[in-house]
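B., you asked whether I could sanity-check this one before it goes into the benchmark set. Here's the sequence:
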Amino acid sequence: MTHPLEVRGLLWLSAGDRNFGGPGRIALLEAIRDEGSITQAARRIGLSYKAAWDAVDTMNNLAGEPLVSRVTGGKGGGSTRLTTRGERLIENFHVIETEHRRFLDLLSKYAHGMPDEIQLLRRLNLMKTSARNQFAGKVAAVERGAVNDEVVIEIAGGQRIVAVVTHGSVENLGLKAGREAFALIKASSVILAVDADKAKLSTRNRFTGKVSRIEPGAVNSEVVIDLPGGGAIAAIITNGSVKNLELKAGKAVTALFKASSVIVGTAD
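And here's what the prediction gave me:
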């Protein structure tokens, strides 16, 4: 079961570069108010007597005036009570806490689409490879073969990439329908063709789009093709091929690559 992403956080107060405290110290003040004894208050929230007084002293110092006053002669070394400032601090903290919770609730409303962004950032951070073409998607199907398996990955725009990988790789990567995965294809493994629909080819992967740009080199050129539905694929071909195919920006062209040229991976 997939649970919606929620934004959570704790509220802490500070004075300058010193930490004043959060819910724990406010709980101590409330316990002192209710119990009238720092000994009982410390026991109630699970602190030692010394730790409770250390916390109170710190809060008193940072506040610039007492939040807790001590009356000598009581059981356990004297009774304690909150000052007016201490009472006001508890009240104001809960007001701020309420607004803080509303703020977090508001962020949570905008967080429903965040898992996709988080996954994307994770991919960008983890995936460092020399392969020019990187496509993220989900496994649509896995077809078992005698030696190798055929893995179909659906990417942006509903297009599908077919890869042939070993049984062991399928098992090690946990590849199955619905599993998030990415496909890597070297630009040098991509073949470009014009009017490919008129030819009969054994290549399983065919992506038709329009030339976006051509980066010429001394011997080869990188040709980038924009694909329908978003995304792009790059191919490295000779300058002679660019000339022979009369490639230029805006021209329709088909990128082809073998299923065996696809490297499949997962982010975890």
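One thing to flag: The CA atoms of residues 71 and 162 lie 79 Å apart. Otherwise nothing jumped out at me.
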